[in-house]
């Protein structure tokens, strides 16, 4: 399929990246009346969206963090009942496991933190833990239980948003089309007669120049707004935001329904995952609604090398056995790697890109892309459509962060 | 004692006593667990699988709705009186009864719980005294009964959990159910690869040959004789590959070569300054690394399964699959079998089954007589094939052999009871207890693809004149490089043996021209065979909307319809993401839709989590 023949000239807005972020943005924009074209260099939801666990979880380590995640989880909570069966929705809840007294103190602290925001959470003691999850190691001291956390199969959710959601008829999907570069009608690549100009009702280029994009082998196409949501691919189009691939490994087992009921994560997770540049491993084991068990997790900065690293795989599996001893009898069917889009300060980028009129970003969510997707979509749509944002994007705004970085 | 018939051990013969679904049975040594399960159920007293479910009604409403909605209402009621093919498991999403089709570790339909370890491929596991086998999954039952805290708000979660309940059968009430608090710490011997011939596993080998079939054995013999240190590996307990395995003509291990049986290659690492490459092996429940200087891939082939309505019913087998299962102790005497598909394998299988007491009702060869006669001419020109032909002709006297006919559907309640056969113009039914369908073979190329060897559009590894692949120090021989039969496999093995035996940089000083000639002749014969038995286009259109294509994940033909490529379909439908990792549906979809599987992920075959432990 060539770009020339598939251009939807009714589209106002282009979204680059049909992952969970791009697709949720497209669905939200369309729901608010926009005509959207979504580009992806591969299949829908075929990047980090397909590589991760699909864990929807409440986090409230700071009020600012909770603002985005809490709102996102609220939106997910409304959507989950409407999703088709293939989305594998499982409201399994999360157990944050305490291996020592420090962890247990953290469990109490985090529970109080979540409750302050009205999120249901409780500390369960060792005896209760053994009762609700008999396969867990018996030396664990307890856990924080967050019952409203859930699990989905993200690639299928993406396909729902783009093809089946209420306003999906306003979304045009152009899979297997790579956007090579961005430009603007007044900047790089002056408008020419060959330009395909979008002609939708409300499009209006800001400040007299409109953003453009060029697909591989295609012409320049002009839109009223272009949203870059291409995960690790963001680095190519918007090098200034410094997104780097943070490699992870996951293993999946055969089907063992009922083996675990909750997603189980070690409480040291947050501590472990933000230890900087080094490799880190954190126990994170998830029962799928199919009965399969996903085993994670680890983080490495290793470029885009997809090969399975035997050393870190072993560390990851050893850690799973430490917390879930009987997992050793389960058969692993497949191990794979994936890349989280990591920003330099571990915060996603959501907002307009300075110096690129009409170009917006929603990327760099690292391991929280699925959880944050719906809140991100709402926030970015508010920004793009000049609506009053429901939540603040101060933490995520490229304008302040990039300018700040330059000054520093 | 429950097993009857020809497999009943004699008074003084050794027997292995095991427990299948709560019932003690005695079977001959060397029987696979798959064979033992079939033997145990053959007397009709244990066959309460589905029926029992209906009586006890565990979550049956959800299941029935689900099954009806998917048009698979036949899934539940299995008559326990005479299940010539017992259901081994319930399929993951629909809960359909399933039984093995391949007999060689490919289809994963034979997975059962062995000594408390769930999801073990029973066809690769040999019986041991005292073994406890459950076709239903004790751990799953324990977990389900402990179902107290989980609050599933989504219906589909309930559905997927209840899909596990058909695993509860009559035996479940009499079997001690391990409490959920009992850690299942049996980390060794849980897999099929538990028994080795006792050869200690080194960490390094000069030449590693993966696959001890005709090609691998020939390569080992010649390379060993030429002074190379050869280590021959096979997933099975015996040498001989699928063709010779378990038969009277099981081949001896070549002198100058060591053989390690029951070992699975699960991963590969590229070479570095010290080694040409490293294989990761699953050996006695542990992962082991093995470095090599030269690697010969002789991983053979497996059957091509083409989906048709009813092909997931217990009792529908691959032709080679049924043969392998019977070799592993599956009782076939007195069973009415329809053999269908294409090629000389059908005759060999029919003859074998008849020899074991089966009632072969019909051999349906999809090729037209015209095409067959042309091939007959080729055969007549090859004297060495005459005795074989004569033998087949004699052993199959009286069995109807019909050309230009093929199976369009299998029917029955919970197991196959009849097939619908056509000649292209009319259709009729043929009653039977079992169907053996063989549409030819496809290369087993997972390891080759993981290593990065180039393959062609039909999955054949590309090799040069001396069987070299495009990866350094990696050779490929036998069916992996193209389906060509025993003769071609052996000569390719010999060629590699000579190449490996030659001095460094000196490709083939001892490689005699006659070897290359023999290979050319065998290739010519293989090509003639392929032309004569080309699959007719009708076979690619047998699946209807409700036909399951991916057996592991219960993905139907209808669900695949909107998709244009393998990866796209996989992401949305889960096709190919189940236990067999696309081995069955991937090969079928290559034929049906021209899709190619581009990735091969480790492990190549399932590995227990505990194998990573020190």
From TrEMBL, chain A:
<dbReference type="GO" id="GO:0005737">
    <property type="term" value="C:cytoplasm"/>
</dbReference>
<feature type="region of interest" description="Disordered">
    <location>
        <begin position="181"/>
        <end position="213"/>
    </location>
</feature>
<keyword id="KW-0560">Oxidoreductase</keyword>
<dbReference type="Pfam" id="PF01266">
    <property type="entry name" value="DAO"/>
</dbReference>
<dbReference type="InterPro" id="IPR036188">
    <property type="entry name" value="FAD/NAD-bd_sf"/>
</dbReference>
<feature type="compositionally biased region" description="Low complexity">
    <location>
        <begin position="183"/>
        <end position="212"/>
    </location>
</feature>
<feature type="domain" description="FAD dependent oxidoreductase">
    <location>
        <begin position="12"/>
        <end position="382"/>
    </location>
</feature>
<protein>
    <submittedName>
        <fullName>FAD-binding oxidoreductase</fullName>
    </submittedName>
</protein>
<dbReference type="GO" id="GO:0016491">
    <property type="term" value="F:oxidoreductase activity"/>
</dbReference>
<dbReference type="InterPro" id="IPR006076">
    <property type="entry name" value="FAD-dep_OxRdtase"/>
</dbReference>
TrEMBL record, chain B:
<dbReference type="InterPro" id="IPR042204">
    <property type="entry name" value="2Fe-2S-bd_N"/>
</dbReference>
<feature type="compositionally biased region" description="Low complexity">
    <location>
        <begin position="163"/>
        <end position="188"/>
    </location>
</feature>
<dbReference type="InterPro" id="IPR036188">
    <property type="entry name" value="FAD/NAD-bd_sf"/>
</dbReference>
<dbReference type="InterPro" id="IPR023753">
    <property type="entry name" value="FAD/NAD-binding_dom"/>
</dbReference>
<feature type="compositionally biased region" description="Polar residues">
    <location>
        <begin position="145"/>
        <end position="162"/>
    </location>
</feature>
<dbReference type="GO" id="GO:0016491">
    <property type="term" value="F:oxidoreductase activity"/>
</dbReference>
<dbReference type="Pfam" id="PF07992">
    <property type="entry name" value="Pyr_redox_2"/>
</dbReference>
<dbReference type="InterPro" id="IPR041854">
    <property type="entry name" value="BFD-like_2Fe2S-bd_dom_sf"/>
</dbReference>
<dbReference type="GO" id="GO:0051536">
    <property type="term" value="F:iron-sulfur cluster binding"/>
</dbReference>
<keyword id="KW-0560">Oxidoreductase</keyword>
<dbReference type="InterPro" id="IPR051691">
    <property type="entry name" value="Metab_Enz_Cyan_OpOx_G3PDH"/>
</dbReference>
<protein>
    <submittedName>
        <fullName>FAD-dependent oxidoreductase</fullName>
    </submittedName>
</protein>
<feature type="domain" description="FAD/NAD(P)-binding">
    <location>
        <begin position="206"/>
        <end position="481"/>
    </location>
</feature>
<dbReference type="Pfam" id="PF13510">
    <property type="entry name" value="Fer2_4"/>
</dbReference>
<dbReference type="InterPro" id="IPR036010">
    <property type="entry name" value="2Fe-2S_ferredoxin-like_sf"/>
</dbReference>
<feature type="region of interest" description="Disordered">
    <location>
        <begin position="138"/>
        <end position="198"/>
    </location>
</feature>
């Amino acid at each position: 399929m060539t770009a020339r023949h598939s251009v939807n000239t009714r589209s106002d807005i282009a979204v680059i990246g049909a992952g969970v972020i791009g697709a949720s943005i497209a669905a939200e924009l369309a729901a608010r009346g926009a005509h959207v074209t979504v580009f992806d260099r591969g299949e829908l939801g075929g990047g980090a969206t397909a590589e991760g666990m699909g864990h929807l979880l409440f986090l409230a380590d700071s009020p600012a963090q909770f603002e985005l995640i809490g709102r996102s989880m609220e939106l997910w909570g409304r959507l989950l009942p409407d999703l088709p069966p293939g989305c594998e929705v499982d409201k399994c809840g999360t157990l944050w496991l305490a291996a020592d007294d420090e962890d247990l103190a953290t469990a109490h602290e985090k529970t109080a933190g979540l409750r302050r925001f009205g999120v249901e959470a409780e500390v369960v003691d060792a005896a209760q833990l053994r009762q609700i999850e008999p396969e867990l190691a018996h030396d664990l001291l307890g856990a924080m239980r967050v019952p409203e956390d859930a699990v989905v199969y993200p690639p299928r959710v993406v396909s729902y948003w783009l093809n089946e959601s209420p306003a999906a008829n306003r979304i045009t999907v152009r899979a297997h089309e790579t956007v090579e570069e961005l430009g603007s009608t007044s900047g790089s690549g002056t408008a020419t007669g060959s330009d395909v100009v979008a002609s939708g009702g409300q499009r209006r280029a800001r400040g007299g120049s409109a953003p453009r994009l060029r697909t591989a082998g295609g012409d320049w196409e002009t839109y009223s707004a272009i949203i870059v949501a291409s995960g690790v691919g963001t680095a190519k189009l918007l090098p200034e935001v410094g997104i780097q691939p943070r490699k992870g490994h996951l293993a999946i087992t055969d089907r063992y329904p009922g083996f675990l009921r909750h997603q189980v994560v070690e409480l040291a997770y947050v501590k472990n995952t933000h230890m900087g540049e080094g490799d880190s491993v954190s126990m994170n084991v998830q029962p799928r609604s199919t009965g399969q068990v996903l085993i994670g997790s680890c983080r490495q900065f290793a470029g885009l090398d997809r090969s399975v690293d035997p050393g870190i795989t072993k560390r990851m599996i050893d850690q799973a056995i430490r917390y879930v001893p009987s997992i050793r009898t389960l058969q692993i069917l497949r191990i794979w790697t994936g890349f989280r889009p990591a920003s330099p300060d571990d915060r996603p980028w959501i907002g307009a890109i300075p110096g690129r009129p009409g170009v917006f970003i929603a990327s760099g969510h690292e391991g929280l892309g699925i959880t944050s997707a719906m809140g991100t979509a709402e926030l970015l749509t508010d920004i793009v459509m000049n609506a009053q944002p429901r939540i603040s994007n101060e933490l995520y705004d490229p304008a302040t962060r990039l300018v700040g970085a330059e000054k520093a | 004692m429950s097993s009857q018939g020809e497999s009943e051990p004699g008074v003084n013969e050794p027997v292995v006593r095991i427990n299948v679904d709560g019932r003690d049975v005695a079977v001959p040594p060397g029987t696979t667990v798959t064979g033992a399960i079939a033997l145990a159920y053959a007397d009709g007293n244990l066959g309460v699988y589905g029926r029992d479910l209906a009586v006890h009604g565990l979550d049956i409403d959800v299941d029935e709705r689900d099954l009806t909605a998917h048009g698979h209402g036949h899934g539940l009621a299995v008559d326990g009186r005479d299940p010539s093919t017992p259901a081994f498991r319930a399929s993951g999403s629909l809960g359909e009864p399933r039984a093995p089709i391949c007999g060689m570790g490919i289809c994963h339909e034979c997975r059962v719980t062995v000594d408390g370890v769930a999801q073990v491929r029973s066809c690769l596991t040999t019986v041991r005294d005292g073994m406890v086998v459950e076709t239903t999954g004790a751990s799953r039952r324990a977990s389900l009964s402990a179902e107290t805290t989980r609050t599933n708000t989504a219906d589909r979660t309930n559905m997927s959990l209840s899909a596990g309940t058909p695993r509860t059968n009559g035996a479940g009430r009499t079997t001690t159910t391990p409490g959920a608090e009992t850690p299942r710490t049996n980390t060794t011997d849980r897999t099929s690869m538990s028994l080795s011939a006792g050869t200690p596993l080194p960490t390094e080998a000069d030449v590693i040959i993966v696959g001890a079939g005709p090609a691998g054995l020939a390569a080992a013999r010649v390379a060993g004789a030429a002074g190379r240190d050869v280590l021959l590996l096979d997933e099975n307990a015996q040498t001989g590959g699928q063709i010779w395995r378990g038969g009277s003509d099981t081949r001896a291990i070549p002198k100058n070569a060591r053989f390690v049986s029951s070992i699975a290659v699960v991963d590969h690492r590229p070479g570095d300054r010290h080694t040409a490459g490293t294989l990761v092996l699953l050996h006695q429940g542990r992962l082991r690394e093995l470095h090599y200087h030269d690697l010969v891939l002789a991983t053979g082939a497996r059957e091509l399964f083409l989906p048709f309505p009813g092909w997931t019913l217990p009792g529908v087998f691959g032709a080679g699959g049924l043969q392998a299962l019977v070799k592993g102790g599956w009782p076939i005497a007195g069973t009415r079998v329809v053999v269908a598909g294409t090629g000389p394998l059908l005759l060999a299988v029919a003859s074998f089954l008849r020899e074991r007491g089966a009632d072969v009702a019909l051999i349906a060869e999809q090729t037209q007589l015209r095409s067959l006669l042309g091939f007959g001419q080729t055969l007549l020109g090859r004297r060495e094939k005459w005795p074989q032909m004569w033998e087949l002709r004699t052993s199959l006297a009286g069995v109807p052999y019909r050309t230009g006919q093929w199976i369009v559907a299998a029917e029955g309640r919970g197991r196959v009871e009849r097939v619908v056969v056509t000649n292209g113009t009319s259709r009729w039914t043929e009653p039977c207890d079992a169907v053996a369908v063989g549409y030819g073979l496809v290369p087993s190329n997972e390891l080759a693809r993981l290593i990065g060897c180039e393959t062609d559009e039909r999955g054949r590894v590309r090799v040069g004149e001396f069987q070299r692949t495009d990866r350094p120090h990696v050779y490929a021989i036998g069916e992996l490089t193209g389906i060509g039969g025993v003769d071609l496999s052996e000569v390719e093995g010999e060629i590699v043996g000579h190449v490996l035996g030659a001095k460094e940089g000196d490709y083939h000083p001892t490689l005699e021209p006659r070897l290359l000639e023999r290979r050319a002749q065998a290739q010519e014969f293989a090509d003639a065979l392929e032309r004569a038995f080309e699959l007719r286009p009708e076979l690619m259109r047998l699946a209807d909307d409700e036909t399951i294509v991916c057996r592991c994940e219960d993905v139907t033909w209808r669900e695949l319809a909107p998709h244009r490529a393998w990866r796209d379909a996989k992401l949305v439908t889960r096709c190919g993401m189940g236990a067999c990792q696309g081995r069955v549906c991937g090969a079928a979809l290559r034929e049906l839709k021209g899709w190619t599987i581009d990735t091969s992920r480790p492990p190549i075959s399932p590995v227990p989590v505990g194998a990573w432990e020190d």
